[in-house]
Amino acid sequence: MALTLYVDTARWRAHQQSVLQQFPGIVPVCKGNGYGFGHERLAEEATRIGADVLAVGTTYEAARMKDLFSGDLLVLTPFRRGEEPVPLPDRVIRSVSSIDGLHGLAGARVVIEVMSSMKRHGVSEHDLPALHAAIENVRLEGFAIHLPLDRADGIDAVEEVIAWMDRLRSAGLPLHTMLVSHLKSDELARLQQQFPQTRFRARIGTRLWLGDHESTQYRGSVLDVTRVVKGDRFGYRQQKVASDGYLVVVAGGTSHGVGLEAPKALHGVMPRAKGVARAGLATVNRNLSPFVWAGKQRWFAEPPHMQVSILFVPGDVAAPQVGDELVAHLRHTTTQFDRMLDC
After folding, report:
1. How many CB atoms lie within 10 A of CB 231?
2. What kind and span of H or E run contains 55?
3. Distances (CA, A) of 297 to 95, 99, 102, 141, 302
4. Chain segment 49-96, per-residue pLDDT in tens
5. How many CB atoms within 10 Å of residue 28?
6. How many CA atoms lie within 13 A of 50 on its CB side?
7. Rounded to an integer, what distance in angstroms lies between the CA atom of residue 1 and that of residue 18?
8. Rounded distance between C-alpha atoms, residue 253 and residue 310, angstroms
9. Which residues contact 50 (CB under 8 A, 6 or more apart)?
10. Could you say which DSSP state residue 20 is in?
């Protein structure tokens, strides 16, 4: 009995091919929990599609991936002096976002990140005069810019990249390769047309692995079903059941990521109102689970346990049977499955 990730492999890979066609020279990204598929599986898929570079989040991920992927590995987290040294092969490329970082990586292969409107990290325009001397002791693989997902105030993503291209060119810096994130295929084509001497490569993770929502599905196995009547006590905290129904124990708990949710940016009146409503229900121990039965998401009977969740199904609904599987609406990047099945 398990929380299972089912993958419609043919459909999933067809989507990958559509992304590859839109973004020639793509650099696939495999970081965190491997977008819900795991590092080993995504390394296998990156090899299958012929990727020559695979981007990972940290040096620790690179250390694990070096035995799974034979091409170059690009570490996205910028190098900082004083970080714990991790033994890595020469095919690992480090991201750098400061002049000091470049001085600390003599002889290494590096990609220099420039500061975008994200304002997360990157060299600034004021750093450019010092870059000439700083890059003499490293092997420069190119520059990179990480763009925001949403655009405000009419700022155009392509124009932001062009502005940086012009700055780098004016500073006399080599522009053979520019890695970009969060651009559309037509925007990438515009840049490639305007700067034919530069190779633009899109770093893509979510769109590549998770762009077709219908190609994957989580399901939790039903482990037990217990009939209860109003007033019965149950669970760790011995709460009372509010009405007649069933307690359904299903595979999938906090160790899988069930019940964990990343903060969301809410835009508009309706989403904010729903957020307020959810918060109000939570104060009276009413929390909606990700598990679906009979066409509806069912309420947690109590907070999820480590490996299972207990749901309440009302008495006027036919109860599931032990061995049934309940579809679960879970976020891939925060979920750890027990098993993955190709179908």
Report:
1. 10
2. strand 53-56
3. 43, 51, 51, 49, 15
4. 999 999 999 999 999 999 999 999 999 999 999 999 999 999 999 999
5. 23
6. 5
7. 35
8. 9
9. none
10. H
